[in-house]
Amino acid sequence: MASIFVPVCVSVAVITITCLKKFNGWRYECGLSSKKPLPPGDMGWPLLGNMLSFLIAFKFNRPNSFVSAFVSRFGRTGLYKPFMFGSPTILATTPETCKQVLMDDAHFVPGWPVSTVQLMGRKSFVALSHEDHDRLRKLTAPSINGHEALSNYLGWIEQRVVSAYEDWANQDRIVLLNELKKVTFDIISYIFLSYESKTGTKLASLEREYTSLNMGIRAMAINLPGTAYHKALKARKNLVAILQSVTEERRSSPDPQAKSNKDVLNALLHVKDENGSLLTDEEIIDLLVMYLNAGHESSAHITMWAIIFLVSHPRLYAEAKAEQEKIVNKRPDGQTHLIMYEIREMNYLRKIIDESLRMVNISLMVFREAMDDVEINGYTIPKGWKTQVWLRSVHMDPQVYPNPTKFDPDRWDKLIPKSGMFIPFGAGSRLCPGSDLAKMEICVFIHHLLFHYKIERLNPDCPVRYLPHPRPTDYCKGRVRKLST
Fold first, then answer.
1. Which residues are annotated as a binding site for heme?
2. Which residue ranges make up the annotated binding site?
3. In the chain, what are the domains?
4. Which of 39, 94, 124, 151 is the most buried (most CB within 10 A)?
5. Mean pLDDT by groups of 10 residues along the chain of 485 residues
């Protein structure tokens, strides 16, 4: 009897698992009207969908295995069908499919999880329709990424970076990522609010709340006391209160100096659209929440990784330093600081930054939602379904980048990236408006490292954690020492 019992139990378990997975697919596919097939895939378990395999892949240091499992099962179709973050979803995983989704504003709108929208705000770029996004981007981008704006910010950025290196060199050891986040937050706060580290409590309060906000953005949306998401919602509320106070104070200030500030808040308060309308308080505050968050977190992580890659590749380090020496040797007498022309001359350093962006993939994916049934590659993306543009799968695809796990800045000499092939900042009309500012920051950090300092990692072989952002588990502990001149 026992010999029959075990096989029967196994058979029942297999049938139950199969039925549950079939049910999850049937539940969302039933009633779809398109005659074109859905992309291949499966929707996993009811409620959980494919989230368990996603989390396992990233928690156990196999971040490429999630998409590669679809490719090995269904072939290189460029589109796959899972159930992710509580919604039926289509994954776009090749340059061609990613390009089509990112560039098609007529059929795709932002599809970020509700939790992300709640934390960033209804008037932030993650939630706006194409028309509203286009309007706000045109009004705000010149004060962030315009040539004049970048030139104005460069001096402050360099001053803050030089000060940071001097401070780090006087410490026995530092946690590099944490220190970089402090500096980049200092920089972005000055650019947007004219806050400096000497501002004290206001800047410290902002930084504290943003730390909590960041921890919840990609956490499970469980609003219970003690959870990261609950703490992030409280941080969002506190940030809105702080930024509302700053906005009202700036508006009502009789101080002529306050009204002549060239920071981004001043631009947001005074810019008018084609109809002569000013931005609302909600628009200003949500834009500040979004920009201050993105403007320090990504820059800090990429700067850390660019430094890690450089110090672990002596040949690349030497080439990067030679380029910087050549640029400085061409300076006229009396010039002691970086200027925008020199930043634009840093061609080899830009390749190092681009290769770091490709390898690290700070953002795993971009979320969209189909407004209509959309046909791509002979498959249908149904109306109302989420679409995830998987940046990582493109950047780490051996058919796109030969030997993709090798850090090789020289690959950019041979590659002419086609649209959809290199998308660390997205693409199309929603390309990250702060990308040039971020790259300029990184250039300044690396420039001064190469000339004046040496960084030694204390745990060069420590493992990497991939969620919510790739980072060494020790956050890159190290020593900074000033070079003798």
1. 432
2. 432
3. 130-315+425-485 (1.10.630.10)
4. 124
5. 60 60 73 83 86 92 94 96 93 97 94 89 88 85 82 92 96 96 91 71 79 80 87 93 90 60 84 84 91 86 96 96 95 92 96 96 92 94 96 95 96 86 91 89 96 95 91 97 85
